[in-house]
Amino acid sequence: MISVPARRAVGALAATTFLLAVGACSRDTPGGAPPASGGASASIGVDLPRADSDFWTAYARYVPEKAGELGVTVTGPTNSQNDVQKVIGNIDSLVTQGAGALVIAPQDTGAIGPKLDELAGRGIPVVSIDTRPDSGKIYMVVRADNRAYGQKACEFLGEKLGGTGKVVEFQGALSSINGRDRSEAFKECMTSKFPGITVFEEPTDWEGTKAQAALETRLSTDPDIKGIYMQAGGVFLDPTLQVLKQRNLLVPPGDPKHITIISNDGIPQEFDAIRAGEIDATVSQPADLYAQYGLYWAKQALAGVTPTPGPTDHGSTVIELPNGFEDQLPAPLVTKDNVDDKSLWGNAAA
């Protein structure tokens, strides 16, 4: 796998914004909950899913900052390196170290179920960041609507291409609910709204090397590719731009050779690429809010708070799942028109 180191430090949102958001919640507000009391003194164990993605590197930077704002103690973080067995081992280690609640991001959403049920039986609540476990008791999932990612990508490409042409889609791992949601929504939208567009689905398992090889092969067999959908800019951006540059296809919009590209993540590097005309858009999933509300909900769990479905005071919606709850955070489309918006976490770096 290509390691994609973070090249710019990601700045922070103002602490007062977070404290106001937390303070405004109440038991009578749908989706909200009061701050945990001082009695919830157990630490929160945090496991990071990987270290080779700019998005997850940014998330990791936000964790200690948001923990300080919320006044919670974090055990770890550990890093499971995209391996579910390491997730399980790290969970056991964090609990042994005294973690009373856990914030994790299991990439294999099917295999983690039995461990979640075991933890529930031991009274240890779990918050899952970015991914929704297929089974197993979960206190809260904190993620954006990943089907909306695929839908937005489809509509953007379909409109830019005028409903015709060939598109390459770098699919995330289909063992992950995120990979499935994005892929299924993209396909359904293309099939129903833009039947004149041919989509080449390229499995990648979230690996940049696989995406790079797939693009090189596809451009050799189909040199008239006009669009690319990258389901994770944090791992696919650099390999994609390298291939296009080598083939003299990294040209700005308006050039006949330009390939329209939309991504998912909202990292600073994607924003720079949008400004440079190298890619056209991304859907920003909020790394800062993932850390903020992941820890927030873990603190509520330690306080014995039961989430309430409905709209929240932080612009999201809590829904009830068969195995828990989910806080669905907003994820805006970013193009050249709004790429400099200071409210986007990818612009937080000073």
UniProtKB/TrEMBL annotation:
UniProt-annotated location(s): Cell envelope
InterPro entries, alphabetized: Peripla_BP_I, SBP_2_dom
Source organism: Pseudonocardia xinjiangensis
Sequence ranges assigned to domain Periplasmic binding protein in this UniProt record: 44-304
Record keywords: Signal
Domain of life: Bacteria
Stated family: Belongs to the bacterial solute-binding protein 2 family.
Name the UniProt record assigns to this protein: Sugar ABC transporter substrate-binding protein
Residues of the signal peptide: 1-23
